[in-house]
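User: Please predict the structure of the protein below. I'd like the answer in structure-token form so I can feed it into my own downstream comparison script.

Assistant: Understood. Taking the following sequence of 135 residues as input:
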Amino acid sequence: MTEGSKITDALEILDLHFSPNSNTPEIMALLAADEIQLEIAQVVYDLRQWTSLTQAQFSEKVGVQESVIEDLEESAYEGNSFGLLTHIAEVLGRDLELCIITVLPEKYVEPERQPELASQSSRQSVESDSIHVGD
């Protein structure tokens, strides 16, 4: 796997999540980037479903090729997914809200504060687990 490459094989993803070497900064960065791409893919799909348009109709409305919408929905788009999502929201007259939560790995937190931070981060992740496109 090279820097900037996408992980698409399910077994490779599971191996990265559960192998003893899965907590390296490089692996964590790749997994975080893939998770963001998956979130964007889901939002694009949800927006298209909300409009009741086919991929071809949606791509025409947004002003991109149909293959771009296909790639976005499959989390395979190689361009600036967030920039394109922003454009889609604008075309549809929707607001885009992004929430970034920073959670420190346990190795950087004093042992006595780990339970406290774990409960806070689980609450935060539930409250901000998705990208919201609102009215």
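That's the full token string. The longest helix spans residues 25-51.
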